[in-house]
Each structure stands twice: as structure tokens, then as C-alpha cells.
Amino acid sequence: MRETNKVFHLAIPCKDLDETVEFYEKLGCRLARRYDDRVTFDFFGDQVVCHLSPDNIDENPKMYPRHYGITFLEKKEYDTALEAATAKELPFFKEPMVRFKGKQEEHMTFFLVDPANNLLEFKYYHDASMAY
Question: What Pfam families does the entry give (predicted)?
Fold first, then answer.
């Protein structure tokens, strides 16, 4: 089980700091720090650092095997995130869908793509025991 004194950290490339800040703030993430070569966000309680690295951008991203995101344990939070992404016209990589329909691991999901083509998945399992 996760303890409250731990924060997951993820570092990813970005191609432009200003557009990166705009995207993640629209997503609801708080800008924690900004330097000439990177920005750090509070990403739903965890830390995402976007390093300025325009030569390391995946020009043709695919959902698998590389993406990251949030698994909501409350459907209302998933719905709120989806509504916010739609209202703020954030770019969808994959529209909302249901995966593994009819199985225990059935879940609702959607993917966004940030300005550096990093893919973000947001999902909600109907059976919370399937979150791990």
C-alpha cells in the first residue's frame, strides 16, 4: 500500500516549456518549479518533470508500450477529468472507450497527448480491486 510520505516521480521530454506549462495547467496540474531547462508539476499528487529535450520527441507515439497517467478510484473523479479535458479542448489521442467489457478488469479510459507527444491515460475500473 502506498504511504502518504512517498511521491512517485516521472521525468519526460518536452519540446517547449511554455506550451508544456499551458497544457499541464489546463489539465489541472500545479506548476511547482520552473528552470531554463525543465518544469516540475504536481501531477495529481505525484511529481512529473518535463525536461526540455526537443531532439528526443517521439514523432509517432503509440499507446503501447509507453504512456503514463492516473487510475481514478472514484468514477466521479474520472468523469470530472474527462469533462475538464473536453471543455478545455485538450487534444485526445484516443477518445473515451471501455476496455475488457464484461470482464472483471473492465474499465473506462481515454488518452490525451501533450505538446511533446507524451501519451497520458486516465482510467476508472468498475471493480476497484483491479486497480493494481
Answer: Glyoxalase (PF00903)
User: Which of these, 95, 50, 42, 106, lies nearest to 70 by C-alpha position?
Assistant: 42
Superfamily assignment of 9-131 in CATH?
2,3-Dihydroxybiphenyl 1,2-Dioxygenase, domain 1 (3.10.180.10)
Strand 68-72 to 119-125 pairing: parallel
Q: What are phi and psi of 118, to 5 degrees?
A: -75, 135
What tens digit of pLDDT does each residue of 60-110 get?
A: 999 998 999 999 999 999 999 999 999 999 999 999 999 999 999 999 999
Contacts of 100 (CB under 8 A, 6+ apart): 106, 107
pTM: 0.92
